Amino acid sequence: GPDELLSSTATRRPFTMNDSTSATADGNDNKKFKGVRSPCSPSRVLHLRQIPSDVTETEVILLGLPFGKVTNLLILKGKSQAFLEMASEEAAINMVNYCTSATPHLRSQPVYVQYSNHRELKTDNLPNQASTQAALQAVNAMQPGNMATASTLEAEGGLFPGHSPVLRIIVENVFYPVTLEVLYQIFSKFGLVLKIIIFTRNNQFQALLQYADPVNAYYAKMALNGRNIYNACCTLHIDYSKLTSLKVKYNNEKSRDFTRLDLPAGGGQPPMDPAIASTFGTQGVIFQPYVGAPGFGPVMYFPQGPVSTSAASGRMSNPSVSGNSVLLVSNLNPDAITPHGLFILFGVYGDVLRVKIMFKKKENALVQMADATQAHLAINNLNGQKLYGKLIRATLSKHQTIQLPREGQEDHGLTKDYSNSPLHRFKKPGSKNFQNIFPPSSTLHLSNIPSSVSVDDLKNLFATTGFTVKAFRFFQKDCKMALIQLGSVEEAVHALIELHNHDLGENHHLRVSFSKSTI
């Protein structure tokens, strides 16, 4: 049974576990506890299995801390098990519920959490508990308002010897785009973030993040390593960097120094707008329980996908929390718009399942995305965009789905089902398309170009379709890809609709997307 190991690991020393039927052990290896509680019955004492042999008390306590105060701990290192006592049964229930869906890890090893048969953990008479009590006291000092105590402990060489304030972060299974802003929102929960640099190495999204204090880095690593940013994807792998400080030259989407708002953006761009900078605030929130820990299933921060930050409050908000994935698109040009055009354009920001142009009011349409996250991405990037001479409006619809016309019902081709379309950009998990989502721009990224197609061929294709080509260049290392700059952003939007999936011959269909680059 889950608690039977207690008696053998308390060998030859007094040990007591109180429960509704008072269970004790007096040093007899063969004496087992006979608690009356079922292993499934909630208890504020939790039983942890498969604890690494070299784990510290602090690391185990930190597993429970996001769910509430931890009041006691017993580690049975010889059996790779531990007992964690929470301050309340509610906190224990939240932890078990969460860890059932999202297995926690200690030192890259999965740890399994269940209820103990006992209501209370009494370890007063056990030897070697002084270090446990010291760890409990130190970790509790990390609660808001007690940061000075923890910093003092760290300065005295206590819990965090030799740890760098710089973390190296690798994000695996990048299903949704991970940005510098997303990392700031997550990691600022654990302290004041000074600098962030993001980059790609060995086809992996990586980042370096510097805290003001090694204490913050330690607790962020303990709480976040192995967690998912979004539901079942974007997994964080965190380690300490050998660097002790980061040098940031530019404030842009790849790097930021939050202590130097005067830094240029690079490429001759002016410094960051103060209004944008204020979005990030100037103070980190010290060790608040991470959002989503109690009762949100296997999600760390953003159960519905990417979030936005309120510049006024500096706090996280999730506009897609309603879960609606149907968009109302209005102020369309009824003479030019088609279901296919909306499918291609909105498909840049997610997989479009259905499109319906209103029969009696053709300047309005419904677009159903694959999920609420993609719907929100489309709103962020396309609301207010000029399309066929009109500024379109994109908002969430009150409808939860688009109904297909009944058999025999006349629809005039205004409702289309694209659920099984081969043109979906995001159906493959981990696709690079997730890392290349940009707002409409006058520069387009072209790919899947056969070797027989020349610069002039592509320029003529766009020109003869009615677009003004201002510049063009192939990628130096890969002539299957190119950039083309058109006369305006609106022209580029129209060109993407017209020429995405254009047949170039040799079984190659042109792939077109918006680029953040210029020529």
UniProtKB/TrEMBL annotation:
Any single biological process term in GO: RNA splicing
The residues covered by the RRM domain are 44-118, 167-243, 325-399, 442-517
- Residues of the region (Disordered) are 1-39
One GO cellular component term noted in the UniProt record for this chain: nucleus
- Where in the sequence is the signal peptide annotated? none
Q: Does the keyword Signal apply?
A: no
**What gene does this protein come from?**
Ptbp3
An example of a GO molecular function for this protein is: RNA binding
| Keywords associated with the record | Acetylation, mRNA processing, mRNA splicing, Phosphoprotein, Repeat, RNA-binding
Q: In what ranges is there compositional bias, type Polar residues? A: 1-27
Family annotation (CDD domains): RRM2_PTBP1_like
Name the UniProt record assigns to this protein = PTBP3 protein
- Note the superkingdom of the native organism: Eukaryota
Q: Which Pfam families match?
A: RRM_5, RRM_8
